[in-house]
């Protein structure tokens, strides 16, 4: 059969080949309470889902071990043991038989209860496992619903996915292909962070592929190839081997600083929202976390998270980060990160959270408690006005109650914030450029479906330059935490403009550090000056 190429947008680089796992939508209308006579059968369904999950995880663990990834294999194997834990099964049984809960809901709730217990333990290693148990519950629930990934190690194909789905399923597949989606949507960000090749925007024709047919996903060119020829399959395998080798090399060089050949030292931090990402980032030499997207932990929330909710999610994430820089962003709900309880709200980021001052205080209280052992920085998302960061500082003062205050910074990801960069820099301890939202909003693109994010656009570049200069004038660090910070074509420009810190997806930390080591700062400055000159007609990027 001839090859057939579908073209979409490149969302996460790399080639992946394998059988298609077609993700079926969750069936609607499962009853909320199972009638008494059906509860036995429902429990059977839950047990099968747990068994299924344990088997999947065992399979995944042996594959990881065969690939020489023993630390990950150990983690996954622990998950399969947890799925067979009689305590978990008993808790699921009680919820189904006594309360008439459906299998998926009982699996999630029982896992949550076990995770809660673990998170409270003084032993940090055990507390870290809480996240894994929650993930296990979600995985088993998906299996009970028939939405599990059918071919572990294959290519996940779906109409669209949210960031939590990719976080959940990304570890089980080699590649992801979506009919819809955009390259700066959070689902794509999570795929890049996990190092899973992904193509989005392939159109409805994608959904005609058969479950189990072999395809190749080309996340670098933005294509999916059906009926691939042997040489294309071989190229995908080679690419995978190359990426594995690059990771091994990155891990081996993790102690070497990210310094240009002529001595400009950059700090490379990680964007993370899960324990797995934190572990991977540290393994690859990240100096800390430059962006902890807290909202990704609460995308299914039915109300603003309480202080205890925040602590429960933060504690395992922060446990491996003692003594390091950790930048925790306040909840950035809105857009493609809208939980059910905020459905219909128009606002985004800090604007939304300031409408719920108690929710802000709860999060600040939890951060101060959970991050006490780290070099904490708090980051305010989607800033448009000075008043917003002042309100956060006031709330922080009240919550800190005499304790020393952490550093406070603002995301510069709107035109308004970039326009006030100097005023913001005068009041804050650091700035963080969010190039994802900045490019999309300045250029009037739709972030959830757009196929590009061109930081080199003259207007975006000007705003990036203005922001970095504002930070430099005040002597405060400026980090870039949008996806541009890990784009090999954009990094020299950002370095040349004077960015101090690059915060990138966990899977890309090693690659970015390596890339910085190959740069000449002087050449980067020249490039930045030329780019600004080309685009504005006058020289910029001076004094960097
Ligand atoms: C950004 O907008 O660049 C950013 C880092 O924030 P997020 O992607 O979470 O919106
Ligand atoms: Mg943003």
Written description of the protein model:
There is one protein chain. This protein is of the alpha/beta class. The chain has two domains: 226 residues, PtsI, HPr-binding domain (Enzyme I, Chain A, domain 2); 284 residues, Alpha-Beta Barrel (TIM Barrel), CATH 3.20.20.60. The chain is 47% helix and 14% strand. The protein has 20 helices and 16 strands. Strand 9, helix 9 and strand 10 form a beta-alpha-beta unit. Helix 1 packs across helix 5. Phosphoenolpyruvate binds next to strand 10 and helix 16.
Tell me the layout of helices and strands.
Layout: E1 4-7, E2 9-12, E3 15-22, H1 39-66, H2 70-83, H3 86-99, H4 103-119, H5 124-144, E4 155-158, H6 163-169, E5 175-178, H7 186-194, E6 198-200, E7 214-218, E8 223-226, H8 230-252, E9 267-272, H9 275-283, E10 288-293, H10 307-318, E11 325-329, H11 350-354, H12 357-370, E12 375-380, H13 386-400, E13 407-412, H14 415-419, H15 421-427, E14 430-433, H16 435-442, H17 458-474, E15 478-480, H18 491-497, E16 501-505, H19 509-517, H20 521-536
Parallel strand pairs: 3-4, 4-5, 5-6, 9-10, 9-16, 10-11, 11-12, 12-13, 13-14, 14-15, 15-16
Antiparallel strand pairs: 1-8, 2-6, 3-7, 7-8
The protein binds phosphoenolpyruvate and magnesium ion.
The site of phosphoenolpyruvate has 11 residues, from strand 10 and helix 16.
């Amino acid at each position: 059969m001839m090859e057939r190429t579908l073209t979409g947008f490149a969302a996460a680089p790399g080639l992946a080949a394998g059988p298609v796992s077609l993700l079926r939508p969750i069936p609607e209308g499962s009853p909320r309470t199972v009638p008494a006579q059906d509860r036995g059968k429902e429990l059977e369904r839950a047990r099968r889902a747990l068994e299924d999950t344990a088997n999947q995880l065992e399979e995944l663990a042996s594959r990881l071990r065969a690939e020489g990834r023993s630390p990950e294999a150990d983690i996954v194997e622990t998950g399969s043991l947890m799925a067979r834990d009689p305590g978990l099964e008993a808790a699921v049984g009680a919820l189904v038989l006594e309360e008439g809960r459906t299998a998926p809901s009982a699996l999630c709730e029982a896992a949550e209860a076990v995770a809660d217990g673990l998170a409270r333990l003084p032993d940090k290693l055990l507390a870290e496992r809480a996240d894994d148990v929650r993930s296990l519950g979600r995985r088993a629930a998906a299996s009970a619903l028939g939405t599990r990934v059918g071919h572990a190690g294959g290519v996940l194909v779906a109409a669209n996915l949210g960031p939590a789905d990719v976080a959940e399923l990304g570890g089980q597949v080699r590649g992801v292909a979506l009919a819809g989606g955009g390259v700066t949507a959070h689902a794509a960000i999570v795929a890049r962070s996990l190092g899973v090749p992904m193509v989005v925007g392939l159109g409805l024709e994608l959904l005609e592929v058969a479950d189990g047919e072999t395809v190749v996903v080309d996340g670098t060119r933005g294509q999916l190839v059906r009926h691939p020829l042997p040489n294309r399959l071989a190229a995908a395998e080679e690419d995978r081997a190359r990426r594995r080798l690059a990771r091994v090399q990155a891990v081996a060089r993790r102690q070497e600083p990210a310094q240009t050949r002529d001595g400009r030292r950059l700090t490379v931090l990680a964007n993370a929202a899960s324990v797995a990402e934190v572990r991977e980032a540290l393994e690859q030499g990240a100096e800390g976390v430059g962006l902890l997207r807290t909202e990704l932990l609460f995308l299914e929330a039915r109300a603003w998270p309480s202080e205890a909710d925040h602590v429960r999610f933060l504690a395992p994430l922060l446990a491996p980060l003692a003594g390091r820089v950790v930048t925790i962003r306040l909840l950035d709900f809105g857009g493609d990160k809208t939980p059910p309880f905020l459905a219909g709200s128009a606002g985004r980021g800090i604007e939304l959270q300031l409408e719920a001052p108690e929710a802000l205080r709860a999060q600040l209280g939890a951060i101060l408690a959970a991050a006490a052992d780290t070099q904490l920085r708090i980051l305010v998302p989607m800033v448009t006005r000075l008043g917003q960061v002042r309100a956060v500082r006031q709330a922080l003062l009240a919550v800190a109650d005499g304790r020393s205050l952490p550093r406070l910074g603002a995301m510069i990801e709107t035109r308004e914030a970039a326009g006030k960069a100097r005023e913001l820099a005068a009041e804050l301890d650091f700035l963080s450029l969010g190039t994802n939202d900045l490019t999309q909003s300045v250029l009037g693109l739709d972030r959830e479906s757009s196929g590009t994010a061109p930081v080199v656009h003259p207007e975006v570049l000007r705003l990036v330059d203005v922001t970095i200069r504002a930070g430099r004038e005040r002597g405060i660090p400026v980090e870039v935490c949008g996806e541009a910070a890990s784009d090999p074509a954009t990094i020299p420009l950002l370095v040349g403009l004077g960015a101090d810190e690059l915060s990138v997806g966990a899977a890309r930390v090693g690659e970015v550090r390596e890339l910085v080591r190959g740069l000449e700062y002087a050449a980067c400055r020249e490039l930045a000056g030329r780019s600004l000159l080309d685009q504005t007609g006058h020289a910029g990027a001076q004094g960097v």
